[in-house]
Fold each of these.
Amino acid sequence: MAVVKMQQINICALRTKRKSIMEALQRRGVVEISPLEYDGGVFVKEETSQHRSLFMKNSASAARAYEIMCRYFPEKTSMLDMFKGRQPISADEYYKAVEKTKEIMRDASEVIALDKSLSDKKADIAKYEYQIEALVPWKNLDISMRFKGTDSTAAFIGTLPEELSYEQVLMLLAQQQPQLCPFELEIISSTREMTCIFAVCRAEYRDMLEDALKKIGYATPAVVSKYPPSQRIEQLNGRITNLNNEIVKTEEEIKKYEAQRDSFKFMEDYFIMRADKYEELEKLVNTKHTFFLKGYVSEKSAIQLKRYLAETFDAVVELSDIPNDREIPILLSNNKLAQPVESVLETYSMPKRFEFDPTGIMAFFYYIFFGMMFSDAGYGLVMSIACGIALLKFKNMEEGLKKSVKMFFFCGISTTFWGIMYGSFFGDAVTVIGKTFFNADWKFPALWFDPIQGTNSMTLLMFCFLFGIIHIFVGLGISGYMSIKNGRPLDAVYDVLSWYLLVGGGILALLSMDMLKSMTGFTLPPIFLTIGGICAAIGAVIIILFSGRGSKPVKRLLKGIYGVYGVTSYLSDILSYSRLLALGLATGVIAQVFNQIGSMAGGGVIGAILFTIVFLIGHTLNIGINALGAYVHTNRLQFVEFFGKFYEGGGEKFAPFKINTKHYNIKEDIKNG
């Protein structure tokens, strides 16, 4: 439950071993490399942008080849693949695959070229099919569509924009040009969209006939063939047949590379790793024969790494403590119960170097609040069992996803606990099933009380407020602890104890009043009204006098008075915990509604079938919706009500130089068998 102590690591080694050392650091993933400053002289930095660009291009080519092969030999996938993680391989397997890089990339280029050839052929087929479609209306024309006439005649081959008969065309032309010269007209074909015509006249009347045709919508064909259309269609069909045969042969050529599919996948990762490595190389400084590296490493990994580098590569490794005034990358270390909730903290912000890591305390409240909101033993069992199976089955699950699955596993346990406390197992499914199908009075009794019955909801609301007050006060307590730890004990009095007195005293006073008895069910003795009032008054005075400390007297007093107004924010924070009741009731009521709908058909076979269908669909929807609601609102209670009392954050997460690949994960500790 703390920020891991980091050390600075400096590495100096022969430049000939730089590649091996960088790859070893990348596989281990325990060092965050920092840019080294240098003042020229014998030291130089390496410009690697061109190399990285080439590596990313090669990675994209390998990925393209892999995607092409997957079209012909698809991998079996399922919804659970997201849990599998990357396939682990040993360092020996990695280097054996790397030795075949040139061969694999040559094959990848060939596959890409063959696929491009396929695309070109398919594009040609589409082009030819379009031409055929355009020529079909002209297939009865027995001359070239490029025919424009002879020395003494003029010919027109084109379309009119609607379906017209021979007589209609003549009438339209006569209307446009009453003095039209003699001409011959033939209707080649007609559809509802157009009419294909062939017209011929004497050469001296070309302009007159052309003008008349254009006025009635004449247009030349989109596709014009120098051969008679029927002959051209036959030629194009022949070309399509040949292209289809070539496509089959090309596809067979591509399929010959089936054995290289996984190799292409490996190369995609390999070149990404090389690009990442060369990006880190820019942070190093080099001489003609040596190189220097500076970075951060956790104290628990430092000694082992130093020994490994020294023994394996004869590297000089220096470890040193980091001055207190320097910010460092943050790595958290928590127990198995708290570690899964680190992702929630990271979503908000990492703590600074010497700031209190709230993950452990937050985890305790997180699981409680999530369980109170989801609050059904059946739902909790479903969640925990599903997460437990996933954790047991998928050993290579990515670390971030594994944390989330573990978190929901513990949330499921908490949900089961609160479901037992409230007497909710898939709502009132036990009671409904007993009455509907067995005419029996079955119960799933509440270990504490059922919040849906009678005034129990008001009782639970009071407990929600109590949990909220505890949660907020713990946050204030952490703030006080940090003030004392940092040598500012008076700040703990001014900024923490004052609010304990004001808010706590106000609560005691309220609980002593008869006006709240209907809600709480009890009233504190009158003496607590006096005690609470005195405490609240002392807290208010402290806030007025010291919350504006550091300012001039008048401004300080005004700041203090305004500071007391902050009690309203504490009131709203406490009221926010009513969501623990609201979401818990929503989960239970919706579950009961689905149970009642499912039992509407009564007993018997039909009733059992209907109940099963409604039960499965309804409760699945309820689990999905309310689990999401519980997750969102639990996060909100941590981010706003809890962190707002003490947490600053702003630290940079530890980002070690490691393997950031898509398909494979190289492991040092895997042995070939």
Amino acid sequence: MKILVHILLIMLLALIATPLQAQGISRAQGIGLRLTFWNITGGRTAVSFNSSQGESTVDLSGVGPSICYFSRAWRDLFLEMSLGVIGGGNIRSEYDGHSDVRVESIVPFVAGLRYDFLSSRVSGALHPYLSFGGGPYTAFHVQTTQVSPLEEVDSGQGTVETRMEYGWYLGTGLNFVLTSWFAINADLKYNFFEIPEVKDYSGVALGIGTTFMWGKQKSIYEITDVKVVLNEIYPVQYQSYANFPIVMVTVKNLVGHPIEVNIRGQVKGFSQRTSDARYFRINGGDQEDIPVTVYFGNRLLDNEDSMPVVLNMDVEVRATKTLRTELSAEIMLHGRNAWDGNMDMLPRFVTPEDGEIRDVARAVLLESRDPIEPGLEKLVYARLLFDELGALKIRYLPDPNIPFYQDDRVQFAHETIDAGSGDCDDLVVLYASLLESVGIRTAVVEVRDPEKELAHLYLLFCTGLKADEGYLISENEKRYIVRDNSFGQKMVWIPVETTLVQEGFQNAWEAGAMAWLQESILRNGLVEEWVRVIDSY
């Protein structure tokens, strides 16, 4: 008993002094050797001498080796088997050669279950477990007598008795995992084993030993779910994908100490670099949803056709060492002109910095020779640019009957000029790009009339006049709108129906003003929120 206590103390000291690299995570299988102390004789272990009478006596209460094997059944539950020999008894010898030997031995061949009950709570390499099982226990009784060769009798005699009965055990123990393949073990078992009419051997057995392990280690983390949050990728929104999660990966910490998790996402051929999520700290036993973002860059705007692509994810987990897992998810990458009908996304198609658009706007303004009244510069510029579209023979072509809940196609401004035509959203984007290129703020009016299946769009632009200066452009207050600009100032805005590109600015202005009055004011579209205004910038 004292020896076992000393060994346990040494293990505890080693636990404090040794870097805990293994973190108590055992491999799937192992085999070990163990020395077991079990008092099967009911006596004590001692050696005595009587020199005056020439006698010596050796008493052994019970000790012996065993070989053990375990295999993981599920997570922290293991199947275990062991075969051992426990021997004890008494040897007495005298000076004249006479000796008596009495030996008792038990051979347990048992199988059971072991449960590492604190593996997800304890961060060190010293981990406790519980065990139970049973099987056949075979008992041997051997007794021999050796007499002096000087006596005129037989030189010796002996008997051997064998009995086998089934028993079972309950136990607990500690595994001190020094490396991923080697551990020191100490356990305590209570064996329930009795031979009727002979002896009740039930009692405590203490064991110490070593274990050699192989096979797959239990992971310190588990990926419980991979959920695609954003399955549809639109090139015009490439800037937002670096900050908005495309996939959520749920990671569970399976051990007792905190871990840190980072997931990098990349789409081969479209990502300019790998995007990094920050490291998320997950405490023992907890789980966390880790967002995966992707850095596409403006090269995504080169993609013309819709296609499925694979998002590759590198899961990096930092604990006592760094572990990695690769994941993938399929997402749909749309062409650069794709639009899902979300009005908040439409301003992304407005390109005032486009060289062709800037050249058109600059040429129109430089050719204008008419004097402009102070304060009306932006109104005049807007009229000149709109009428230039008519001069370029840009025409409105109605969209196919696409409901506002289905994907559409939007042309960039230079594409509409090159094509010579466009639908309502194409013309809104073109006109807004021209106006923004000369410093005129714009906004898009979205109309989702509940009495109509198709949505409609038209444009607002800011005249630069304050709310009390509206009379400079019209005595009729219904011809313009007063709304806040990006700085919170109330300014005069003008609605323009861009589909009337061939009928001139004046008619487009009147139609836009009438639509605003009818839909937004008289029919309460703004209040009921089926009319919305979205600023381009």
Amino acid sequence: MPIRQLSETMINQIAAGEVIERPASVVKELVENALDAGASRVEIVTAGGGLNLIRVTDDGSGIPEPELSLAIARHCTSKLAEDINDIRSLGFRGEALPSIGSVSRLSIRSRTASGDSAAEIGIEGGRVLPVRPAAANRGTTVEVRDLFFATPARLKFMKGERAESSATSDVVKRIAIAFPAVRFTLAGSDRSTLDLPATDDSPEGSLRRVAQVMGAEFPDNSIAIDAMREGVRLTGHVSIPSFTRANALQQYAYVNGRPVRDKLIAGAIRGAFADVLPRDRHAVTVLFLSLDPAIVDVNVHPAKADVRFRDPGLVRGLIVGAIRQALADAGIRSATTGAAGMMAAFRPGAASYDHGGPANGHRSYEAAYRASGSAGFDPARSPQRPLDMQFGGFERAGAKNGGFGEPGQAAFDTGPLASADARAGQSEAAETLLGAVLGAARAQVHENYIVAQTRDSLVIVDQHAAHERLVYEALKNALHSRPVPSQMLLLPEIIDLPEEDAERLAMHSETLARFGLGIERFGPGAVAVRETPSMLGETNVQQLVRDLADEIADNDTVETLKERLDKIAATMACHGSVRSGRLLKAEEMNALLRQMEATPGSGTCNHGRPTYIELKLADIERLFGRR
């Protein structure tokens, strides 16, 4: 078959296959054009999930009548000058409008601030209609009807109307978070309306916009992030470890104001929360990266959702380090949703639960707890055998009082009555403890839960989960404060690798040695492993080294080895922590509470379940009808 030039319509339809995947893609492109035009109000209307109708109206600068024909021509744009490395707008390729017009019936009606009247141009399946006068206010209205009528095969891949509408709503929300000073409204054929009033560009205004999108409870359960490293700045908010979701859909990331879905950023978020979240649970995040446009490539894919960083290791390290530091600085905090679950448990009918579901139409405490975002812990994964270890001032197994796991402990004994002066001193000390975050211990119930009182709340602490976290943090600090002990292999393990992988491993050999893994080059395309971390015991050295090589190639880090060591430390902490069923004296309970307050991340155990729940006095009074 001879080589021939494709028609302009065919070229645009090929481009549309990359840019316009579904109605949500059309909405994304049109809203970005409105924002680049300086709009302060964007209105979106859809019908049939966007397949029948998409109308986007803005009050931006508008398009002059002589430029309307250029606006629908391929690779024509006002947003890019000569330097492809200096992209400061959302759009820049000049492909969206002609691509949309090649697979739908498109009309653009626009009027500038200085124009006496508006003008309109249309495209039907790639056929351009002449420009004609129209009536309109300042700004632009783009209307897309019968999406994919010119390429009916694509319609077979569309989902139902509800799914397409949900995807459109998600796109609008993602964009709206980055532009709090703009009002967004989205109306669908099912009469549902999303209205996001404008706030302002201040940090407080930005957080209010986040609350509009992610729910009013997010600000109270989040931690602010503000960090900078080598010209790259990271700002935003992340949820506290006890406030989670079942999927990662509420993880929003932005690069220079552009919404992105980048695997490097997603992986960094997972790494930062690795040892504080339950399995299969995800943090809620809104992160903004600001950096020189020259060191990030947004021209990776026509949809502009992927980006590439010149120094991915720097970006990943900044995200992981900033989040972990913020979690540590925030101290101990419990999610407000935990109190909501507890309140639900006390309501009439909430305790009636069987395998068929809650009775009387009320949720059980278990259901309310899971809905609150704090579920995910499997008690079967928590061994109940004591280990002869000492952390945090508690006796070792076999010492006085029988150790952590002895079943035959003496009953709780407060000792002989103290003198009046001594009791007065104790009252003053107790009053001081009431001002602490976790307050003063008052009792231990069911040999596992510590009940404490603060000035305005009641706190219930799971003693095993809390001490498990304390032991784990102590082990981690000891593990990472000095080189990890290693064991010499009787015979070096020779591993054949691609030359580039062997070179990458050799470049990180000093870091790997600090974690107990001794690696050196062994000729071209091979490395010799002479030492492995003693904590790993018998391990598959070949697989470990290949996993490290893959991670270094992707992220320029050696987190795989560190994560394996941390998992071993977590297992040791689970065995060595104070057992359920261990009777504690008042001094021991208060010591545990004070250590929790001083230990970062102690709001959750190693498995991610909460270590304590706080119920405010106002909530208790509401339960008794006193408010």
